[in-house]
């Protein structure tokens, strides 16, 4: 779990670091602030294509070797971002990072699903998700400070070096992950014929679209609309990440104890409250830090339970296949959400964003639909998997191969 978490730390940091650094390299490379969402869109579009392709072959390999290959590609792409000379070259590097980053994330969650029993999977997924929060705590502040001291390229080179060390540790220390190879998986077409699969895909799509219509624009909104100081932005992300770290672990335990649906419903309600008082009808009396922390907490309650629940939808021998399809659809949804946000938004002459309240209303409506679908999925999964093993550790031991 430590190695899986470290790999996801690098992966999530590669994605999360770009958003707060946006104003820095936008100025250096002459990229309009309103186009920063396109960098996230290019990453996720490439991620979608790679994950869709991975659905056809990832279950055929030792997951350790496949994960090491994906992390290696991510390291190379991250270094390439530091050599960008304009929008086109930066977008190209982000697309390469998306190809390998999406594959690495799919494999990481497949390994957790293979090894951890369903009744403890929420806690395990929360532990993995907490590394995303660690990236938020350490990454953006460190990236912003490195950019201030050494220019906007230095964070990418530093992250590439750190990623190379994690990749080497994964290759040398992670045990082989071959238990899924003991069972012949069903056909890919057969997986896609199941109504529960499509219900899960639809749920993830709506949740991702709602989230990423808002997230890419928060840094610019806080700085340009709420006049939050640029030199305190790193502290803001550090506070939010620290809270997110604890939230992810707490939410995982709650999901195991109470079920995914009630936890997600609470997260949707909190998300709506935060967006209403922070964006739609902004109250100056509520500090930006409180708004940001509240949104981070709501994200943990919305997405950690669904991560664990999604791993229970496929059979163990086809888990990477399903998670690849889900990740591909999720990437498309993130792309659509980011692009849709940029289409709704505009800028005033002073640079402040206009239209984020409309984006927030749409995100709230979609988030409650997401919570309702999560409830339907949990009921279906509980009825289908009652009394049936949903992980590979037991079956591998029974065959003497663990």
Could you describe the 3D structure shown?
The protein is mainly α and 402 residues long. Helices cover 77% and strands 1% of the residues. A hairpin with a 5-residue loop joins strand 1 and strand 2 (353-354). It has helices at 2-16, 18-29, 37-54, 63-81, 87-115, 118-150, 154-173, 188-192, 195-214, 218-225, 233-258, 260-280, 288-310, 319-344, 356-385, 393-398; strands at residues 346-347, 353-354. The protein has one domain (2-398): MFS general substrate transporter like domains (Growth Hormone, Chain: A). It is globular. The protein has 16 helices and 2 strands.
Would you spell out the secondary-structure blueprint of this structure?
Elements: H1 2-16, H2 18-29, H3 37-54, H4 63-81, H5 87-115, H6 118-150, H7 154-173, H8 188-192, H9 195-214, H10 218-225, H11 233-258, H12 260-280, H13 288-310, H14 319-344, E1 346-347, E2 353-354, H15 356-385, H16 393-398
Antiparallel strand pairs: 1-2
């Amino acid at each position: 779990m430590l190695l899986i978490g470290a790999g996801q730390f690098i992966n999530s940091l590669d994605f999360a670091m770009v958003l707060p650094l946006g104003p820095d390299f936008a100025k250096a490379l002459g990229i309009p602030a309103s186009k920063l969402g396109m960098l996230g869109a290019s990453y996720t579009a490439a991620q979608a294509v790679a994950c869709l392709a991975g659905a056809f072959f990832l279950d055929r390999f030792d997951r350790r070797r496949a994960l090491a290959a994906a992390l290696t590609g991510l390291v190379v792409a991250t270094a390439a971002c530091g050599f960008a000379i304009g929008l086109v070259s930066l977008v190209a590097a982000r697309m390469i990072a998306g190809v390998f980053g999406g594959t690495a994330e799919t494999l990481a969650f497949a390994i957790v699903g293979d090894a951890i029993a369903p009744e403890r999977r929420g806690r395990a997924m929360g532990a993995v998700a907490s590394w995303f929060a660690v990236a938020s705590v350490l990454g953006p502040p460190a990236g912003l400070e490195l950019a201030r001291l050494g220019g906007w390229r230095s964070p990418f080179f530093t992250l590439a070096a750190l990623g190379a060390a994690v990749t080497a540790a994964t290759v040398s220390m992670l045990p082989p992950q071959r238990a899924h190879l003991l069972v012949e998986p069903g056909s890919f077409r057969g997986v896609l014929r199941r109504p529960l699969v499509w219900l899960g895909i639809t749920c993830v799509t709506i949740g991702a679209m709602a989230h990423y219509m808002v997230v890419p624009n928060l840094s610019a909104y806080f700085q340009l609309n709420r006049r939050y100081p640029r030199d305190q932005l790193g502290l803001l992300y550090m506070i939010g990440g620290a809270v997110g770290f604890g939230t992810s672990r707490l939410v995982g335990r709650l999901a195991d104890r109470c079920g995914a649906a009630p936890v997600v419903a609470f997260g949707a309600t909190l998300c709506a409250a935060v967006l209403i008082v922070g964006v739609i009808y902004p109250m100056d009396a509520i500090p930006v830090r409180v708004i940001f922390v509240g949104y981070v907490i709501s994200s943990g309650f919305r997405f950690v339970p669904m991560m664990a629940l999604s791993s229970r939808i496929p059979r163990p021998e086809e888990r990477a296949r399903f998670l690849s399809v889900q990740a591909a659809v999720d990437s498309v949804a993130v792309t659509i959400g980011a692009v849709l946000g940029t289409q709704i938004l505009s800028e005033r002459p002073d640079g402040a964003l206009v239209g984020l309240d409309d984006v927030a209303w749409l995100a709230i409506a979609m988030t409650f639909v997401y919570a309702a679908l999560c409830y339907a999925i949990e009921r279906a999964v509980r009825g289908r998997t009652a009394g049936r093993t949903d992980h590979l550790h037991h079956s591998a031991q029974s065959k003497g191969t663990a």
